[in-house]
Amino acid sequence: MLSALTSSSDQRRVIYWLLATEAALFTFMRSEFGDYLSPVLLYLVGIVVCVAVYYFTRHREWSTPTASQMKQPWLPILLATGFGTLLCVKGMREVIRNYAIQIASSDVIPALSVYVKRFLAGEEVYTPFTAELGYFALPTYLPATWFPYLLPGHFNFDYRWMSSFLLLLGTVGYLVVLARLRKPASYTFLLAFLPFAATYAVIRTDASILGYTVETMIVGYYFILITGILLRSWPLQVLGLLLCLLSRFSLVFWVPFYVLLVFFQDSRQKAFLLSGLVAAGILLLYVVPFLSHDWGLFMRVQSSYTDVAVNEWRHLNDSGLPMHLYNGIGLGNFFFRFSDGELVERIRLLKTVHIALLLFIVAGAAWLYWRQQGQRSDYRIYAVLVLKLYLITFYAFIQVPYSYLAMVGIFPSLFLLLLVAGTTSSTEKTASETPRHA
Q: Which of 73, 178, 308, 431 has the highest Cβ tally under 10 A?
């Protein structure tokens, strides 16, 4: 498709439209094409976006100058950030006012508050919930999911402001990458405003995501990781990997792939350093202080996810169908409708397909990168593209495709915009370097 377009600007335009389509299918056009076609379209558009960006960037240069080389003024970024922040704060105030925190609606924030209260009181954090939530539940949240809420827990302010702040913190990384592209002021302003526009679109189309959960925090974590990758900032990469791994193990298969990219394409020493620091962080922040108190907890938690999925597959909407399977997001409804056996057997089949696809993606991506002819793609761009594909696959085939989880796979598309905007062909580079005469 892109090869048929001779102009780089035309190719960019196609990719921008694809990214806009993905955003629309997640927000105001969700479920627009029916229970089965809508999630398929959302997933397929995400795949096409990754493929299109790969072909657009693979033999072209993407570079971010150092801070001392930057000539792009920060004014349009600051203006967009200020306006966007005010818009989203206004929206979040409405969300917090309209969505009261109560277990009957969602147990996400009530459960997080239990972790925080236990930790602040010096109690054992990872023991089953009973009286606190009114039912038995294993503590499934990893430390980076509840650590940030020690602050609002101590100073008694709403957890949702904290998750919003962490998304803003991750967005700062996006803005730093944008600033180093040195684009025209109007273009920079538009790109700087897009993360806030995307957040506001979610507020207007599915406010429960921000009202009942803290998923914007997880998006912020991934923004930090992607920023570290694109800027070759090893401290940010270590921090991002720790935050992502210690909030969920979603990207556990992608991490070895990325470490190998660093090992072969950047520095063996940095690859070992990255692996060592992340492993040490997991050991010090999770294994020693928490997991070592009950070594069997981790496996019991993994097993409990199947029980949770069975309960959610029995949670029906007004049409008598599983509410969270028929929300226009995930592909689990195909397994519910077309596979045989009891619910638990269908869920196990979905889980098997889920893991197999993730392994196929990282193995296939490694093979494709190794087999590239001529100049290889910048490994940073390639890593981000594979991460995007990995995440949309992870959340498309997850056992319970809550809409708030899918956010984590959708929002990294903002960085794909920067990859496309900052990639230049030799022709464009020559034109930009040609002196202009009056």
A: 178
